[in-house]
């Protein structure tokens, strides 16, 4: 009996050691950079400026670094492959507003190499530095030694509101064996499956990253997860993405047929969804026949807004699953119309085809579908989520009301001063 009891305890310990990890991730709500003057500017343009700022609408959570297990808050990004944090010797990082930096030292288990590295993002943002190797833990699991880009120069990253970014790509070309962080956790026995999944809700704190499995309570139908093979390029480096082929895109009574060369990714590091330019133009032209769209120029791009409360047709993406069955993923307008300061913007943009990725489906898409990224079978799964647009916070519209209230109070105060001054002059 004693041996049986010991065996049961061992099984329980193994089960706990290899259980999936659920990481609460926070949606960061955009903040005004100049609240006192925002009511003097065009409100539609302000809304777009917030929307396209890459650093203000992402989902972040905590990891621990080094022997000290110091906690850092990072954005989790399925569209890139590298973890980066700022160095203690980075003046531009301080200027860009980063508050926490990592001090790489032998005592903390960190080794700095002479390998240079950089990551560039849309809008001219970038980070540059050298690769370090450091023990990393997450939610008490680990550590596993991973490559870290220790940033020595930050470019256009003001307002990021996190300490850095963790790429969750297929491979890590800076790792000795090219093994990515999640896959390494699996290989070392910390999680039961070599996969991770995202559930993105509309609230500020109801989203989660699950490492080692899927939270079925976030699926509208737990029996329906359809997997799609990722397209392999034969390279075990950062060029290999979670890339899948698109069969068609449809809206209303129109459908655009695609080929196996028309590929895209599901990207947690992107707020909007981007679709190939020719498809986008056809879609916008169609929307103009069923609703009134207002164009809002933003640099070289143009956004479109609609009257808040407007319902537009679904935008449907069709992908072929691993069994050869076509699966339709319909994105309702309640998911792709984003309310910013009471300006309702279509959160889908055209994407100029300059690479093999022609469709980039960010948070707008991921709030509709739980996404699963599987290293063992090199596939990506999708399932309708339980996220509800009706639960989206209204903090931004409340903030706008506060602006106007402040403006009215200011005008009343100014009027009072003018009245007092005139009375004094008359005397």
UniProtKB/TrEMBL annotation:
Entry keywords, A to Z: Aspartyl protease, Disulfide bond, Hydrolase, Membrane, Protease, Signal, Transmembrane, Transmembrane helix
S-S bonds: 308-344
UniProt keyword annotation of Hydrolase present: yes
A molecular-function term among this protein's GO annotations: aspartic-type endopeptidase activity
Xref: Gene3D superfamilies: Acid Proteases (2.40.70.10)
Active site: 77, 267
Entry's transmembrane regions: 404-425
GO BP terms, alphabetized: proteolysis
Signal peptide start and end residues: 1-19
InterPro entries: Aspartic_peptidase_A1, Aspartic_peptidase_AS, Pepsin-like_dom, PEPTIDASE_A1, Peptidase_aspartic_dom_sf
Keyword presence, rRNA-binding: no
Peptidase A1 domain mapped to chain residues: 59-383
Pfam families referenced in this protein's UniProt entry, alphabetically: Asp
Record-linked PANTHER family: BETA-SITE APP-CLEAVING ENZYME, ISOFORM A-RELATED (PTHR47966)
Assigned protein family: Belongs to the peptidase A1 family.
Name of the protein: Eukaryotic aspartyl protease family protein
Organism of derivation: Tetrahymena thermophila (strain SB210)
Phylogenetic classification of the source organism: Eukaryota, Sar, Alveolata, Ciliophora, Intramacronucleata
């Amino acid at each position: 009996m004693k041996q049986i009891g010991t065996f049961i305890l061992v099984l329980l310990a193994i089960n706990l050691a290899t259980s999936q990890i659920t990481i609460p991730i926070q949606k960061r709500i955009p903040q005004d950079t100049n609240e006192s003057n925002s009511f003097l500017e065009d409100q539609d343009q302000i809304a777009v400026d917030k929307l396209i700022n890459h650093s203000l609408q992402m989902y972040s959570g905590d990891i621990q670094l080094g022997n000290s297990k110091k906690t850092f808050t990072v954005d989790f990004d399925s569209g890139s492959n590298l973890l980066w944090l700022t160095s203690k010797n980075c003046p531009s990082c301080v200027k860009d507003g980063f508050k926490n930096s990592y001090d790489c030292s032998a005592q903390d288990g960190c080794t700095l190499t002479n390998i240079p590295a950089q990551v560039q993002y849309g809008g001219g943002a970038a980070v540059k530095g050298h690769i370090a190797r450091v023990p990393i833990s997450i939610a008490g699991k680990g550590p596993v030694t991973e490559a870290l880009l220790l940033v020595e120069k930050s470019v256009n990253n003001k307002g990021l509101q996190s300490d850095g970014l963790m790429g969750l790509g297929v491979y890590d070309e800076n790792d000795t064996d090219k093994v990515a962080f999640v896959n390494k956790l699996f290989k070392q026995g910390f999680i039961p499956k070599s996969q991770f999944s995202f559930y993105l809700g509309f609230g500020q704190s109801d989203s989660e990253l699950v490492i080692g499995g899927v939270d079925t309570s976030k699926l509208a139908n737990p029996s329906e997860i359809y997997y799609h093979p990722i397209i392999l390029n034969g390279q075990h480096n950062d060029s290999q993405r979670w890339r899948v082929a698109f069969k068609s895109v449809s809206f209303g009574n129109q459908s655009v047929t695609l080929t196996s060369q028309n590929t895209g990714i599901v990207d947690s590091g992107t707020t909007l969804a981007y679709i190939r330019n020719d498809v986008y133009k056809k879609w916008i032209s169609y929307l103009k026949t069923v609703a009134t769209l207002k164009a809002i120029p933003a640099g070289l791009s143009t956004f479109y807004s609609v009257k808040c409360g407007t319902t537009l047709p679904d935008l449907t993406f069709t992908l072929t699953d691993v069994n050869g069955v076509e699966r339709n993923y319909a994105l309702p307008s309640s998911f792709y119309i984003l309310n910013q300061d009471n300006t309702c913007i279509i959160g889908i943009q055209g994407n100029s085809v300059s690479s093999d990725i022609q469709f980039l489906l960010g948070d707008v898409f991921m709030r509709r579908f739980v996404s699963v990224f599987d290293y063992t079978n090199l596939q990506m799964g999708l399932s309708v989520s339980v996220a509800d647009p009706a639960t989206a916070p209204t903090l931004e519209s409340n903030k706008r009301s506060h602006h106007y209230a402040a403006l009215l109070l200011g005008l009343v105060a100014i009027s009072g001063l003018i009245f007092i001054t005139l009375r004094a002059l008359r005397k």
